[in-house]
Amino acid sequence: MLLDALQRSEPSNEPYLEASTTGRAHETHSLERLLQAWPLQRRRVCAKQYVFRAGQARHALYLVHAGFFKTAVVSEDGREKITGFRMRGDLLGLDALDMPTYACDVMALDTGELWELPYARLRDELPQFQERVTALLASEIRRDWSWMLTLGTLGADQRVVTFLFDLASRLEQLGFSPNRLQLRMTRAELGNFLSLTLETVTRVLSRLQARGLIGVAGREICIKDRNGLQTVLRDNTAYH
Amino acid sequence: MLLDALQRSEPSNEPYLEASTTGRAHETHSLERLLQAWPLQRRRVCAKQYVFRAGQARHALYLVHAGFFKTAVVSEDGREKITGFRMRGDLLGLDALDMPTYACDVMALDTGELWELPYARLRDELPQFQERVTALLASEIRRDWSWMLTLGTLGADQRVVTFLFDLASRLEQLGFSPNRLQLRMTRAELGNFLSLTLETVTRVLSRLQARGLIGVAGREICIKDRNGLQTVLRDNTAYH
DNA sequence: CGGTCATTTGATAGACATCAACGTAAGTGG
DNA sequence: CCACTTACGTTGATGTCTATCAAATGACCG
């Protein structure tokens, strides 16, 4: 139950414009609707380009309008950890709201468009905005906790499957097909997010494909047997 | 740099009332000062007692005034993950601000006192409160990310050392000695938080003690050689 | 003082990391 | 248009960290 509310991670965007079974314009888009009357600064970014980096002066909040992004934290000694993948409707920079500088790196994984939100003005002039921001902050915490649970208690296969389900669910929310996933990150990035090596990610995907549960063609993955994948989650619950 | 701002996890409370070198009344206590004029409902809890559990109707926010607590999420199939240890100055229930029910379990690890904060009223009547809550939410996210980094990229020894440093730092902020740590959680709980087994935690502590870096007597741990411990962190940076 | 729970330590095994090649795709420049 | 380069992905062999299993000791409590 908690899980349903929490799980999240990944995106794929412009292709696959099929109709979703559940309709469009979900929670994710509510911020966009809220901001329709505002003249927002837009910013285009290309793949591998940083939106901002930890330590830079915080100018604004960014609302993802298109494209895929990764957020990451880095330690002094260079260890990096991808904390999430962001897509349309996600807000970037929230985690530094109380700071003068950004607290994480955000990199575009493909070309995308961002809307620059002037936080202070929106907060003061748009009453629902503050509330929305609070909700987004809280849900980010729950999402993080959910991933901590996943990474801390599940084995490699189950982590990957959890990721695939989460990505599929997010895509579906945006109106895309939940069965054809276009990964925008490398195996290494996926592995980093899941606390696995890139080789392990590859092996898991191959394994799942061999069992007929998914189809893998590079970064294009299709989900063939949802129940089978659910079984993977239920079965060998490694650890603890 | 990021790390310093982020790391956090653990507490120990009433004993060790030594003077801290850095003075008192830090950021952590600012909420208490802010609330001095308010008549707050207080609640006493005993060890092993739940403050609230995930799914229960959300009544209020709780400010920890005394005692130690653990927050945990649980999946449908019973996997549990401790997401943090909370002490004086921490706010409980923040992660569910936008929900009708709590999103995690909170259990007292010893006797403690909580102050019940009526969120809606405080938000409306105390302007600085909203701001404070936002800051706390954001810093919880950064803290979570920092632990994700630690758990995802460091080996067992380094996780435990990171934990000890974090705990020591938090204790110092509260005015206690940063060198004598009274753990309030079992090895199993510590292991759960660090994504290790209780046996591994025990072994690491024994190992560090054998090297003369710390002293271990059950749940009482004293830090003997900070530099030596720093070395552990620098050295064998396992993984990736 | 028996009984439960927490901690410690040892022996063993397994899952995943590491190391090493090789295959594939895409982009560059001659 | 095709070597050449570079980045990414796949697969295999091997190693190791830490989980698992097991047992003994100690602490606390009714």
UniProtKB/TrEMBL annotation, chains A, B:
Residues 154-227 form the HTH crp-type domain. Coiled coil: none annotated. It holds the Pfam family HTH_Crp_2. Transmembrane segments: none annotated. One of its GO terms (cellular component) is cytosol. Gene3D superfamilies: Jelly Rolls, Winged helix-like DNA-binding domain superfamily/Winged helix DNA-binding domain. It is found in: Cytoplasm. The keyword Nucleotide-binding does not apply. The keyword Nucleus does not apply. Keywords: Activator, Allosteric enzyme, c-di-GMP, DNA-binding, Repressor, Transcription, Transcription regulation, Virulence. One of its GO terms (molecular function) is catalytic activity. Residues 49-97 form the Cyclic nucleotide-binding domain. Residues 1-24 are annotated as: Disordered. InterPro entries: cNMP-bd_dom, cNMP-bd_dom_sf, Env_Response_Regulators, HTH_CRP, RmlC-like_jellyroll, WH-like_DNA-bd_sf, WH_DNA-bd_sf. PANTHER family: CRP FAMILY TRANSCRIPTIONAL REGULATORY PROTEIN (PTHR24567), FUMARATE AND NITRATE REDUCTION REGULATORY PROTEIN (PTHR24567:SF75). Homodimer. This is CRP-like protein Clp. It comes from Lysobacter antibioticus.
